[in-house]
Design goal:
The complex is a heterodimer of chains A (about 450) and B (about 325). Chain A is mainly α. Chain A has helices spanning about 1-45, 45-80, 85-115, 125-155, 170-175, 180-205, 215-255, 255-265, 295-300, 325-350, 360-385, 400, 410-435, 440-450, and strands at about 160, 165, 270, 275, 280, 285-290, 290-295, 310, 390-395, 395-400. Chain A is built from 14 helices and ten strands. In chain A, the strands form five sheets. Chain A has a two-stranded antiparallel sheet. In chain A, strands 3-8 form a two-stranded antiparallel ribbon. In chain A, helix 1 crosses helix 6 and helix 2 (about 45-80) runs antiparallel to helix 3 (about 85-115). By secondary structure, chain B is mainly α. Chain B is about 80% helix and about 5% strand. Chain B has helices at about 5-35, 40-50, 55-75, 75-85, 85-105, 115-140, 155-160, 160-190, 190-225, 225-235, 235-255, 260-280, 300-325, 330-335, and strands spanning about 145, 150, 285, 290. In chain B, strand 1 and strand 2 form a beta hairpin. The chains are: A mainly alpha (about 450), B mainly alpha (about 325).
């Protein structure tokens, strides 16, 4: 019975976060795209880019609403589902949580202003300026909340006295060893995903057939411009993201070796450790069908092919993460390389043979990248979170000690599952309704008509 | 002043802020639905959505701010309230989620849906009711701790006259605050039909509001004598509260200075809320958590206070800008922008 509540507590938190992360990632990534598009539109005096900003904002606000309510849910659930954890850890992580709310507050204030002041200022740059606090606020709330997660992986900034945290140094806890690489990776992947999502939509619209010819040209023009801009952003953040992923792996190698070892099914401590790609475990826990790249794990973890990588055998079995994380890790990394590669392909087509970058297969590939990017985000977080099991605060508190003992937790799981199903469905229905009947070319005609 | 006292003061201020802005929001939901049922929706719905759409997210942040802040300053609250409130707080989350999604979706056609408008109105009443449970149990007697187990005594809660009178007070206060604000907003918009309608709402709800306040006070004296006597020592605050109430009703009745009327409603609740809060001292949760014992480490407390002051430098100008754009910009209020 005891174990059951713990398992359901984990499932409930996992469910809420799985759902929230989709909208949180959109919430961090999209404002930057909106801001870039509006700026380009004003600078180039091209109403198409401004229209992109407008249309993206309209869709964005729907996802923000769901991000806000699920964020409120997880904020409360931290105390409701893990009361023992918050009682202890609250002493150390309160500062970043508090600051995250400030950043969120800041963003909320300016989002309202940005939304309801289109065309209210004479100077268009004034309205664009309102987008900057949104970008900054969204980015900062991701930074602060990620430092909390960093702390749970790498608890620092306190002294343990009789099972309680004492001599707390809030800044040191916030700027723990795990924080820099985590923050870097979270931000770069969110911006990458934001750009990929919008690029996938543009590509999808280009693939669709249009009714009349003049509208077809208008529409294609709009979406091609969006696609090109977004693809260059994908290339940039795709490269940055690979770099940040590499730094994260180096952090794991140095400070969280059991997570890296589990991710790579690296059982024995050795020098010149091989990198394993894919494969599966047979019933004797032997790895089958994997591809080994000699000495590459040492290089990945330490930047040195001869470095010694600690294996899982060094850790007591009760403290090693589940081996399933290998699949999550491999898939995430693979997608992380695919996304910038597709963008590179797009630009190669663009440079070599003109016009061919919009061939249907490439567009289909770009559409596919949208869901892949979100899959990678989920896989990455599953890897990060399952990878520190059995701990909730690594080395100090297990999830079993932290969970609620309330018998109602199972019912609450069902309640929230129903809520997320409803919210998810509504989100899709409303977004479809919003854009189906009101394509870009129609709005563009109106807009240009208004100006002349 | 010690950091834990600063902490609770700041949090209480934010809870007060939430009380005001959320009441406007929740009450508006009920009035919007009520107007629809009585076929008067064309009069006030435009007014309601014009003010509320840009600020609903800010309202929500006040709430998040409070609960993150209280868990931060007083981590023991996470343990006791978190354990005890799993069910009521989860229900509140679901209601808030339904409501939050309404704002996002209302721009795109769901405004016409009676079902959604009903949910919007219903959540406007159910959320304050479910949140007021937290206030009720802070009075003590509803939470039991036995060998490391914290649980809520549902039977005691549901049979307590105190808990029902707090719920009633929350509901009617929400309606009274909201109607007064809407009266003020309608007068700024110079929207005479809307003004007439919401002014009758405001005057109607003033009586049940003061009656509920009185009954809550009586039941509190039976449930928690210490708290009651502490409040009686703050008689001048309660007196000011009643004075401001009378002033606001008189202004509403005489049909002028609606801005001042709303201000005095704010002052009325300010004094009542702070008399209630100060009277609660030193307990946060009677008898388990006091402000002194439940506070976080000093270093964290000071860091939080610093973060709070730094944050205010960011928030106050931003909020001022919002007010300037959406509340005091006469053209926007009138619907010209």
């Amino acid at each position: 019975m005891e174990l059951d509540t713990v398992l359901i507590s984990r499932l409930l938190t996992g469910l809420t976060l799985t759902f929230h992360i989709i909208f949180a990632t959109i919430g961090v990534g999209i404002p930057l795209m909106i801001s870039i598009a509006e700026f380009m539109g004003i600078k180039k005096r091209d109403p198409r880019y401004v229209l992109m900003a407008k249309r993206w904002t309209r869709g964005f606000i729907i996802t923000v609403a769901i991000g806000v309510v699920t964020g409120t849910a997880i904020g409360l659930q931290l105390s409701l589902v893990w009361p023992n954890f918050m009682q202890v850890a609250g002493n150390v992580i309160a500062l970043p949580l508090f600051m995250e709310v400030f950043a969120f507050f800041f963003e909320a204030i300016f989002l309202g202003m940005y939304l309801y002041t289109w065309g209210r200022f004479k100077n268009p740059y004034l309205h664009w300026l309102l987008s900057l606090p949104i970008v900054i606020g969204a980015g900062m709330s991701a930074v602060f909340i990620t430092t909390v997660n960093g702390f749970l992986n790498q608890p620092e900034g306190f002294v343990l006295e009789g099972g309680q945290f004492a001599a707390v140094n809030p800044m040191e806890a916030m700027l723990n060893t795990a924080t820099p690489s985590k923050v870097f990776h979270v931000l770069s992947s969110a911006y990458l995903t934001g750009a990929v999502l919008l690029a996938a939509i543009a590509a999808f619209m280009l693939l669709k057939k249009k009714a009349s010819d003049s509208q077809k040209i208008q529409s294609a023009d709009y979406h091609k411009k969006a696609l090109k801009m977004l693809m260059s952003i994908v290339l940039f953040f795709g490269a940055v993201n690979v770099l940040s992923g590499d730094l994260s792996a180096k952090y794991l190698g140095a400070d969280q070796p059991e997570k890296l070892a589990a991710a790579e099914w690296h059982f024995e401590t050795e020098e010149n450790a091989d990198l394993r790609l894919f494969g599966w475990l047979d019933e004797n826990q032997n790895v089958q069908g994997d591809i080994r790249i000699p000495s590459f794990l040492s290089f990945l973890a330490f930047g040195d092919f001869d470095a010694e990588v600690i294996g899982l055998e060094e850790f007591p079995e009760s403290e090693t993460p589940p081996l399933i994380v290998h699949y999550l890790f491999d898939l995430m990394v693979m997608i992380g390389f695919i996304l910038p590669a597709v963008s590179l392909l797009y630009f190669m087509f663009n440079f070599r043979k003109k016009r061919n970058e919009h061939n249907r297969w490439l567009l289909r590939l770009i559409v596919l990248c949208g869901p892949l990017a979100f899959l990678a985000i989920e896989l990455g977080w599953y890897f990060a979170e399952l990878g520190r099991q059995p701990w909730i605060i690594r080395g100090f508190m297990t999830v079993e000690e932290a969970a609620t003992s309330s018998p109602y937790i199972g019912l609450m799981f069902l309640l929230f599952l129903a809520l997320y199903i409803v919210l998810g469905t509504l989100c899709i229905v409303v977004l479809r309704k919003l854009f189906r009947g009101n394509p870009a070319e129609l709005e563009l005609e109106k807009e240009i008509g208004d100006q002349s | 002043m010690s950091y834990e006292l600063i902490g609770i003061t700041v949090l209480w201020l934010f809870l007060y802020g939430y009380l005001i802005v959320a009441s406007i929001d929740f009450g508006a939901g009920f009035f919007a639905y009520y107007a629809k049922v009585t076929k008067k929706d064309h009069i006030i719905n435009q007014l309601i959505s014009r003010y509320l759409s840009p600020v609903w997210e800010i309202t929500n942040v006040f709430f998040v701010f409070f609960f993150v802040g209280i868990v931060g300053f007083f981590p023991d609250t996470a343990y006791y309230y978190g354990s005890a409130l799993l069910v009521p707080a989860s229900l509140a989350i679901v209601l808030i989620a339904i409501r939050g999604s309404f704002y996002a979706f209302e721009n795109y056609g769901s405004k016409d849906s009676t079902i959604y408008l009903f949910l919007y109105g219903a959540t406007g009443l159910l959320i304050p009711a479910s949140l007021s449970v937290a206030l009720t149990i802070s009075e003590g007697g509803f939470i039991v701790e036995e060998n490391g187990w914290v649980s809520l005594e549902y039977f005691a809660l549901f049979t307590s006259p105190l808990s029902w009178s707090i719920v009633a007070l929350a509901l009617v206060s929400v309606l009274f605050i909201s109607a007064t604000f809407l009266t003020f907003y309608a007068s700024r918009a110079n929207d005479q039909p809307a003004l007439k309608l919401v002014r009758t709402y405001a005057m109607f709800w003033s009586t049940p509001m003061i009656v509920a306040a009185l009954t809550t006070f009586i039941f509190l004296s039976q449930h928690n004598e210490r708290h009651f006597h502490n409040m009686m020592d703050l008689w001048w605050m309660l007196g000011l509260s009643v004075g401001f109430f009378l002033l606001s009703v008189w202004l509403l009745y005489s049909g002028k200075r609606y801005g001042l009327a709303f201000m005095s409603v704010m002052m009325q609740f300010f004094f009542a809320f702070f008399a209630y809060g100060i009277g609660h001292y030193p307990y946060i949760l009677d008898p388990y958590i006091t402000i002194q014992d439940g506070a976080t480490h000093e270093s964290m407390g000071i860091a939080l206070v610093i973060a709070f002051i730094a944050g205010l430098f960011l928030l106050i100008p931003s909020l001022a800008l919002v007010f300037k754009l959406f509340l005091f910009d006469a053209d926007y209020v009138k619907g010209k922008k």
